[in-house]
Amino acid sequence: MIIVNTDFVQGKTITETIGVVKGNTIRAKHIGKDIVAGLRQLVGGELKEYTEMLTEARKESMQRMVKEAEAIKADGIINVRFTTSQVMASAAEIMVYGTAVKLK
């Protein structure tokens, strides 16, 4: 599966546009890591607990998008974009979406 954030794939021809595919997940850290992140926020620096959470969420969202594209027999996904939103305190949704295509 070729995944790009452009509207073309270098060296390939798009023979069919299948449609939009997406993947998402909502993640939250447990209260212990939330407290540690809150304390770290007081002194400054990277909130590693949240960086880790969002990295895991992006990975899971991508896997779900690829699975959806494979189910409709796509060869690639173009114009891939990520979006995030806060669902509640300490919980975020990551969504990734793009256009599933057939390539030659």
Explain briefly what this protein structure is.
This protein is of the alpha+beta class and 104 residues long.
Q: What report would you give on this structure?
A:
The chain is an alpha+beta fold and 104 residues long. The protein has a single domain (2-103), classed as Hypothetical protein apc22750. Chain B (Translation Initiation Factor IF3, 2-Layer Sandwich). The chain is built from two helices and four strands, in the order ββααββ. The chain has a four-stranded mixed beta sheet with strand order 1-3-4-2. β3 and β4 (91-103) form a beta hairpin.
Spatial strand order of the main sheet = 1-3-4-2
Helix content: 25-40%
Give the overall shape.
elongated
Q: How many domains is the backbone divided into?
A: 1
Helix and strand run: EEHHEE
Question: Per CATH, which architecture?
Answer: 2-Layer Sandwich
Radius of gyration: 17 Å
Features:
alpha+beta; 104 residues; 4 strands; four-stranded mixed β-sheet; 2 helices
